């Protein structure tokens, strides 16, 4: 193989690697969802953004800011709009997003409102009953993941959830509490 052929071969391999890296970057980016300001989506979005963009040592802060600009929309973008004009403000913009949307009390508050707003499911509406059970599990898991261990046991949250149950299920729940001799059941027990 001539020296010219070797150089062409090396360049071709290098271009293929660069193309593959670009394809991998593009594939990772298409997996990332846009953050629209929904606090309930912050943990998932933040985790994905950190592992794909923020912790990637091959990406500069200028590139990170570009990715951040393309991945925040609506209220989230409005919240950091003053930072987006300068790539030097990347870290500040990310800290502000975390402060606003990653605040555990805000997340728990939003989840409590979601529970309050959930329409009482009918006894024969299986999909609504499953959705309600999923919401209860999400409430308990989210509270626990943010260190709010007492909240799932709060009487007012249990009352909100219990009052949304169809009467036959509410009766079964009451029997279950008595059978287990629980004196202070909470959402954790209700979601099980």
Keywords:
192 residues, mainly alpha, 2 domains, 10 helices, elongated
Can you describe what's shown?
The protein is mainly α and 192 residues long. The chain folds into 2 domains: 32-101, no CATH class; 104-191, no CATH class. 69% of the residues lie in helices and 0% in strands. The protein is built from 10 helices and no strands. The longest helix has 29 residues, at 3-31. It is elongated and about 60 Å long. The N and C termini lie far apart (69 Å).
Quick recap:
With 192 residues, this protein is mostly helical.
Helix and strand topology:
Blueprint: H1 3-31, H2 42-54, H3 61-71, H4 74-79, H5 90-101, H6 104-117, H7 126-145, H8 155-164, H9 167-179, H10 187-191
Helix pairs in contact: 6-7
Tell me the overall shape.
elongated
Our count of domains comes out at 2
- Give, in order, the helices and strands: HHHHHHHHHH
The count of β-strands is 0
Strand content: under 5%
Global mean pLDDT: 81
Q: Biggest sheet, in brief?
A: none
Instruction: State the secondary-structure class.
Output: mainly alpha
Q: Count the helices. How many?
A: 10
Give the fraction of residues assigned to helices: 55-70%
Q: N-to-C terminal Cα separation, in Å?
A: 69 Å
The radius of gyration computed from the alpha-carbon positions, rounded to a whole number of angstroms, is 24 Å
Low-confidence stretches: 14-23
């Amino acid at each position: 193989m001539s020296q010219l052929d070797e150089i062409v071969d090396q360049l071709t391999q290098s271009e293929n690697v660069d193309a593959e890296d670009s394809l991998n970057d593009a594939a990772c980016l298409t997996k990332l969802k846009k953050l629209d300001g929904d606090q309930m989506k912050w943990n998932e979005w933040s985790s994905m953004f950190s592992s794909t963009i923020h912790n990637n040592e091959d990406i500069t802060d200028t590139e990170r800011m570009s990715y951040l600009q393309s991945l925040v929309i609506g209220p989230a973008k409005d919240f950091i709009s003053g930072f987006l004009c300068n790539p030097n403000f990347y870290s500040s913009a990310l800290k502000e997003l975390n402060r606003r949307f990653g605040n555990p009390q805000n997340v728990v508050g939003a989840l409590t409102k979601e529970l309050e707003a959930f329409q009482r499911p009918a006894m024969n509406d299986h999909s609504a009953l499953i959705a309600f059970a999923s919401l209860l599990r999400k409430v308990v898991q989210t509270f626990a993941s943010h260190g709010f261990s007492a909240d799932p046991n709060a009487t007012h949250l249990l009352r909100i959830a219990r009052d949304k149950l169809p009467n036959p299920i509410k009766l079964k729940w009451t029997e279950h509490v008595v059978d287990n001799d629980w004196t202070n059941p909470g959402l954790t027990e209700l979601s099980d």
